[in-house]
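Lab notes, practical 5.
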Amino acid sequence: DGLIIIPALDKKNLAIYQRLLREDFPFVFINICFRDLKVNYIRTNDYEAAYQAVSYLIKMGHKKIAHIRGPIGVLECDDRFLGYKDALAKNKIYFRSEYVKLSDYSIKSGYKAMNKLLKLKKIPSAIFCVGDDVAIGAYEVIREAKLTVPDDIALIGFGDIPQISTLEVPLTTFNEPKYELGEKAVEVLMENIAACEKWKPKEIVIKSKFIIRKSC
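Output from the prediction step:
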């Protein structure tokens, strides 16, 4: 009768989603969505969270702040990037394009991105990562370079996933309210199923919680 979907980041199933829309089949996306789709979308407050994270780093005295972002065109990644840029602008800190590196949310991509950042002439003093897996990869590179978190480089992730418990330095991150996201997705889906072919797409934002630990 309906679907709750956490889409892949690479848009490989985009044609399927477009077909579902044409056929008025009810479905809901959680967290991941694309700019060229008008669908039910339940997500966290990505822009506000990123703005809060970078503002906190600035408050802690950082000015050379990098961002390891997610794929371009994915709404949550674009919003977190925009929050990062706007926080810099608000505090009159120059935006450096070389401080922004792409990732695919994996540990490996975070590792590669952090390696690139450490090769810059002016190494950033803080990194805001699009996700916790990315932060884990970045942390590994920092440690291999004989640098320390947070004394040499501060680190913030996103997601509060169980895997971050393996890090020697507890990671500052955002806790995504997974239960609330799922609950709201079911609620919206049931409304759409009841409405049959008359349903209209909804976007619902649920606030994430900033958890300050020892990585920054």
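Observations recorded by the TA: Strands lie at 3-5, 27-30, 40-44, 65-69, 100-102, 126-129, 154-156, 173-175, 203-206, 209-211. The helical segments are 14-22, 46-59, 75-90, 107-118, 132-144, 178-195.
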